[in-house]
Specification:
Elements lengths: L7 E3 L10 H12 L4 E4 L1 H8 L7 E4 L3 H7 L3 E4 L5 E6 L2 E7 L24 H6 L9 E3 L4 E4 L3 H7 L1 E2 L5 H7 L2 H13 L2 E2 L1 H9 L9 H12 L4 H10 L3 H4 L1 H9 L1 H19 L6 H17 L11 H16 L3 H17 L7 H6 L2 H5 L4 H14 L5 H17 L1
Parallel strand pairs: 3-6, 9-10
Antiparallel strand pairs: 1-8, 2-3, 2-7, 4-5, 5-6, 7-8
Helix pairs in contact: 7-9, 7-10, 12-13, 13-14, 13-19, 14-15, 14-16, 15-16, 16-19, 19-20
The structure holds adenosine-5'-triphosphate and magnesium ion.
């Protein structure tokens, strides 16, 4: 193999207080043992873009067993590709050994990558990554950025370019198309023209991606705080039909559906910006909530109330089964949706029925806080003011105190 080109080394300014000291200590230990080691991926990108990274990943020339032996509080995770979780202070860092890209594909016959577990050099490790801004290495001890992929220029220009030809990179791993949208929206980076063309052209390849990975990226997209824009992009790039076909057909049924859904996403974004910390149970309820509520409405369909749980579960299950989400996620999302009928009873629920409900039994459920957040989201989306939420919130606090 020919020797790799020299990387560009620079010392760009960045907010040093955003650097995690424990992560730097882990890097230093590995370097002192003689192993080339860097901070990598999203944390380097975020530092250079001036935002506080949420986690710090480390890549090293040391093999997993070596890393494991150097840190007492560490453990090996992952079967297919081993990485080491190193606990330092109160934090955990993911330490992975440099990996090589799978064999080069020539563009005429690109296969999906399912096996990328071959160790490699730092140069190879940078080149197997998705976008140039995600392929930068930071040596936090020397304060130096090591750039094999032209990422520094793209950080400065605030653009998203694939490492290599996007046609090939999106075909070998279509999940990168969703990641493109995520970074465009969350970091406000402009996509390259070739990236947009390739994303649209290979959107249908998303049907071949591992469903669990797709679902993970969809939930991450919902948590960006830019979910409304993300869905616009997914529609513009004709991606929705491949990742959420059931949602797409429902959206296409009417303008009202589209408008109601967009309002929910806008409310979600507002709540995310205000610190909502939701997991995929909640996001699942957001994705399919309006549709379920329509079905609960007796004006739309004749059905008995005891059928509601099955109706909700049926709507959620299509996606859950395809995405291989745990069944508990559907159970929790269903509970969030059904709880709304009690938190905010629709007109068709009779006064006597309302009086028979016991709010304590509802508030005692582990998922109640999520149901309450969901009520807030609905009220916001419908422009109804927060009085009803305030009432329940207060009641819940009193309930909590009585239990303490
Ligand atoms: P986030 O802030 O959303 O966590 P991130 O860039 O850290 O963004 P991760 O999913 O945590 O994203 O992945 C860490 C790094 O691994 C990325 O920065 C990128 O270098 C690499 N990576 C992740 N997914 C892919 C992929 N599908 N193809 C190639 N490289 C990837
Ligand atoms: Mg990350």
């Amino acid at each position: 193999m020919s020797s790799p080109p020299e990387p560009t080394r620079t010392r760009p300014p960045f907010q040093r207080s955003y650097l995690n000291r424990q992560a730097v200590a882990v890097v230093r230990t590995l370097q002192e043992e003689g192993y080339e080691t860097y901070l990598v991926g999203g944390c380097v990108r975020d530092l250079l873009l001036g935002t506080r990274p949420k986690d710090f990943d480390i890549a090293t020339a040391a093999k997993p067993e070596k890393v494991r032996s150097l840190f007492r509080r560490s453990r090996m995770i992952g079967r297919r590709f081993q990485i080491v979780h190193v606990h330092h202070g109160r934090e955990v860092f993911e330490v992975s050994t440099f990996r090589a890209a799978p064999p080069k594909q020539d563009g005429s016959h690109v296969k999906i990558i399912r096996n990328d577990n071959v160790y490699g050099s730092s140069f190879e490790d940078a080149n197997r990554r998705d976008f140039t801004v995600n392929g930068l290495f930071l040596d936090p001890v020397a304060g130096e950025i090591v750039d094999w992929v032209g990422g520094m220029q793209d950080v400065q220009d605030r653009v998203l370019h694939s490492i290599g030809d996007p046609e090939i990179r999106f075909r070998e791993d279509p999940v990168r198309i969703l990641r493109l949208i995520k970074f465009m929206r969350r970091l406000d980076l402009a996509p390259g023209e070739a990236e947009i063309v390739a994303a649209e052209r290979h959107a249908k390849d998303l049907t071949h991606a591992a469903p669990a990975r797709l679902a993970e990226e969809i939930f991450r997209l919902l948590a960006t705080g830019q979910a409304e824009g993300v869905f616009e992009d997914m529609q513009a790039l004709k991606i929705l039909r491949y990742v959420l076909p059931e949602l797409r057909s429902w959206l296409r049924q009417s303008d009202d559906n589209r408008e109601a859904f967009s309002k929910r996403l806008a409310a979600l974004d507002e709540m995310t910006a205000n610190g909502l910390c939701a997991d995929y149970d909640f996001h699942l309820a957001v994705l399919f909530g309006v549709r379920a509520e329509q079905e609960f409405d007796p004006q739309q369909r004749r059905m008995k109330r005891k059928e509601y749980p099955q109706i909700a579960a049926a709507i959620l299950s299509e996606f859950q089964q395809r995405a291989r989400l745990p069944r508990t996620a559907v159970a929790c999302a269903t509970n969030i949706l059904l709880a709304q009928l009690r938190l905010d009873p629709p007109d068709h629920i009779s006064a006597s029925r309302r009086q028979s409900w016991n709010p304590e039994a509802l508030m005692a459920q582990a998922w109640f806080p999520l149901a309450l957040s969901y009520l807030k989201l609905r009220l916001k989306a419908d422009g109804r003011g927060s009085e009803l939420w305030d009432e329940w919130h207060q009641r819940y606090q009193v309930f909590g105190q009585s239990k303490a």
